[in-house]
Amino acid sequence: MSSEESSNEQKYVIYDMELLSKLIVGIGEVAEITGVPTRKIRYWEEKGIIKSVQEADGSTRRYDYVNIKKIVLVQELLEDGYTLDTAAKKVEDRIKNIDDVFQKIALQTLEPS
DNA sequence: GTTCTCACA
DNA sequence: TGTGAGAA
């Protein structure tokens, strides 16, 4: 999705957050789907910019919705010429901002004064 | 298929 | 910043 392939493609929007938050896939599938090689994913994790959730017995890395999203975002920023560190920082900031917004919304709607 | 580490670009 | 290769 480089630039302006805007109109005719109909996209599916997943709005079942409950299900979305439970999507956890292995590194192989993440690599295949996102186009980021497993080697690079491990490298990023080693750098601390993403983290995998580990099941007790298995040794294979598995990634949840948030981290898969990070992988995609970081990759886009890298393609735009950012360094890995700055890309990671921008991703963290964006996620934090979004979290803050929904935190405020949640507080306002769940605890109306 | 996955893991790690060392070395190299 | 990322890969290759070998070994487990």
Automatic annotation (TrEMBL):
Residues 27-93 form the HTH merR-type domain. This is MerR family transcriptional regulator. Transmembrane segments: none annotated. It comes from the Bacteria. SUPFAM superfamilies: Putative DNA-binding domain (SSF46955). Pfam families: MerR_1. InterPro entries: DNA-bd_dom_put_sf, MerR-type_HTH_dom, MerR_fam. The lineage of its organism: Bacteria, Bacillati, Bacillota, Bacilli, Bacillales. Keywords: DNA-binding, Repressor, Transcription, Transcription regulation. The keyword Membrane does not apply. It comes from Paenibacillus baimaensis.
